[in-house]
């Protein structure tokens, strides 16, 4: 069993900023990304924690991503806030747009945040949680690289294409949140299986010959991933390509992979987020809406089922009390980034 290195949350953040700054990112970008890395590690989402620093360093070294570009925010008479990341990483663009998204939503009831030309590496739940923190319902989606074969097909066309949702809960410690890839396994988890030389779960990937494989290397080297739920996951994934690719005039997963040209960088594309103000929907009785939602949640947990993100929120509590525990080999890798 791999040994673990115990780090405080402050150490995770400081180490992330230090590494990202060493690779030339501006202070604003380094800190915005470090906040996302910290959130992933804190919530024990290993594939989105400090492990990602190596992927980011590789992308920076390829010379594709802008290290200093300031996101451009466009606000007009519509309910759409547009942020052009100018080919930088996405976290700073999101931070620049979230406040304006909240303002628009509270004015008109429903608004969208459109982020273009960004290198997106992170989970979506930090973003929909940020929307919920404003008392708003959140929805987010984004394409990736074309690593996923559509149901019934034989070659990758779709991305892992995550979908995330949040529902604010005034009298609960945490919002209701889910965030999942429409692929049968997250790309980061596939890469971790490859790194640790462990078998994949059943029916999540194909090898280069289109045969189901449990070998992560075979899936990565010329193979592909599968969608969850067969045709249902494939349809959802296609919707996400259309909504957060074609609709906002940004890259689909196929186009992102073509732009990458074999460099194995973080995907470059757009992202689309929606926010809904519960006080503007319904028939004017927000307390009835809240009570209805809480009864639904109670009916789920009272029978022993768990709400999505429950384990992540429990991990967050542990990390806030005891810090995080990073495997020795991942810690060694990120230390090497400082050399």
Automatic annotation (TrEMBL):
<dbReference type="Pfam" id="PF02615">
    <property type="entry name" value="Ldh_2"/>
</dbReference>
<dbReference type="InterPro" id="IPR003767">
    <property type="entry name" value="Malate/L-lactate_DH-like"/>
</dbReference>
<dbReference type="InterPro" id="IPR043144">
    <property type="entry name" value="Mal/L-sulf/L-lact_DH-like_ah"/>
</dbReference>
<dbReference type="InterPro" id="IPR036111">
    <property type="entry name" value="Mal/L-sulfo/L-lacto_DH-like_sf"/>
</dbReference>
<dbReference type="GO" id="GO:0016491">
    <property type="term" value="F:oxidoreductase activity"/>
</dbReference>
<dbReference type="InterPro" id="IPR043143">
    <property type="entry name" value="Mal/L-sulf/L-lact_DH-like_NADP"/>
</dbReference>
<protein>
    <submittedName>
        <fullName>LDH2 family (AllD)</fullName>
    </submittedName>
</protein>
<comment type="similarity">
    <text>Belongs to the LDH2/MDH2 oxidoreductase family.</text>
</comment>
<keyword id="KW-0560">Oxidoreductase</keyword>
């Amino acid at each position: 069993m791999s040994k673990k290195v115990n780090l405080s949350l402050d150490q995770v953040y400081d180490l992330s900023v230090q590494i990202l700054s060493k690779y030339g990112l501006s202070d604003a970008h380094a800190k915005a990304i470090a906040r996302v890395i910290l959130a992933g590690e804190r919530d024990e989402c290993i594939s989105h924690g400090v492990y990602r620093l190596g992927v980011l360093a590789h992308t920076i070294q390829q010379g594709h991503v802008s290290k200093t570009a300031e996101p451009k925010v466009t606000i007009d008479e519509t309910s759409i806030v547009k942020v052009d990341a100018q080919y930088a990483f996405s976290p700073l663009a999101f931070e620049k747009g979230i406040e304006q998204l909240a303002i628009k939503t509270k004015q008109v009831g429903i608004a969208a945040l459109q982020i273009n030309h960004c290198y997106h590496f992170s989970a979506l739940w930090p973003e929909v949680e940020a929307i919920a923190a404003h008392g708003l319902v959140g929805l987010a989606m984004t394409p990736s690289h074309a690593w996923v074969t559509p149901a019934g097909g034989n070659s990758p066309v779709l991305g892992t294409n995550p979908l995330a949702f949040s529902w604010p809960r005034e009298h609960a410690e945490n919002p209701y949140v889910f965030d999942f890839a429409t692929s049968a396994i997250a790309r980061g988890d596939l890469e971790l299986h490859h790194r640790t030389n462990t078998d994949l779960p059943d029916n999540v990937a194909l090898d280069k010959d289109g045969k189901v494989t449990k070998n992560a290397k075979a899936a990565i080297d010329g193979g592909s991933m599968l969608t969850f739920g067969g045709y249902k996951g494939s349809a959802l994934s296609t919707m996400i390509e259309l909504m957060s690719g074609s609709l906002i005039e940004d890259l689909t997963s196929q186009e992102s992979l073509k732009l990458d040209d074999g460099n194995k960088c973080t995907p470059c594309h757009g992202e689309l987020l929606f926010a809904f103000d519960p006080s503007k929907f319904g028939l004017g009785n927000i307390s009835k809406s809240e009570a209805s939602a809480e009864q639904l949640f109670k009916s789920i947990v009272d029978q022993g089922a768990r709400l999505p993100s429950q384990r992540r929120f429990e991990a967050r509590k542990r990390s806030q009390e005891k810090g995080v525990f990073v495997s020795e080999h991942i810690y060694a890798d990120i230390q090497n980034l400082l050399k």
